[in-house]
Amino acid sequence: MKTTATADTIRSKEFFHIPFWLRPETDIFSKRAQRLTQLATEESSDWQHYLQLLASVCNAQHTLLNHYNNEQLNITPKKIANDLPLSTALIIDNRVLIVAMFKELHSLLASQLSQTAKRAWNELLQLDSEKCSQLCVQAFNQQLSLAHQDYLVWVNAILQIIYTHAAKNLTTDIITPLPDIGFCPCCGTDAVGAVIISNGELEGLRYLCCATCSSRWHTVRARCSLCDNSRDLGVHNIDQASKGALSGAEAECCPQCHSYRKRYRLAKQQYADPVADDLASLSLDLLLSEEGWQRAGANPYLLMSKLSKP
Ligand SMILES: [Zn+2]
Ligand SMILES: [Zn+2]
Known about the structure:
The chain is α+β, with helices and mostly antiparallel strands. 40% of the residues lie in helices and 10% in strands. The protein has two domains: 153 residues, no CATH class; 115 residues, FdhE-like domain (FdhE-like fold). Strands 1, 2, 3, 4, 5, 6, 7 and 8 form an eight-stranded mixed sheet that branches. Helix 3 crosses helix 5 and helix 3 runs parallel beside helix 8. The longest helix has 24 residues. The site of one zinc ion has 8 residues, from loops.
């Protein structure tokens, strides 16, 4: 008998299970470092230096993540009522360790720091554990003040290590979708972007990505990840882009909430990383901003001045 199975009918069968949550990959930071290095070589503007610096930061994060895998971070992931598995308690419970992590991160990066970065680090290294954890909580809540913008990269780098480490140790039974599907079910951060998987059983599916704890979670593509609208969703990209980050980057635009979130087609850019590729495809954001679209997606390394018109 002739088979009429399609991708959809295969997926509807009981044996096909779409995992809601994907655990952070162990080598997430080293892969991101490689991607940033590649994107930096393709960048012709001054932005190249920033991408290169972030590649070094990611390599240092990889080293620290491995180091602290064997050290015991104080992780007590638990689901209490409607609380998220990972909250700012993770920062408070590890405040002494965080001071040590800052010192280690600094020593790994010291030889590559600009004068401005050195000044910021001199201040950071003076902070006691209370002040340090306050700063981390502010960064976690995306409320770092303008006066602390020079700390942005370093504080977020530490947060990513701690939260990624904790997310790696979560069990799926305590992770459930939030009513706002665009927010991370583990730590509540606004998704930096999404990837469209290019192969295997999950081919074609959309997974949103958290830049804080490196989790990925499945949401259906037919719905806006901000307002859940399913009507007249559009996809914008830069037609002329045939290579580099822009060739795989798209923006899902929703006419109901007038917002967009970026997504990356792994079929076009196999190694796309939503944090790195976001930074290398800002011309798409500039275009959409000119057309009046509102950006969604928290990228801890995005300097907002890059999104304003020259
Ligand atoms: Zn998260
Ligand atoms: Zn919407």
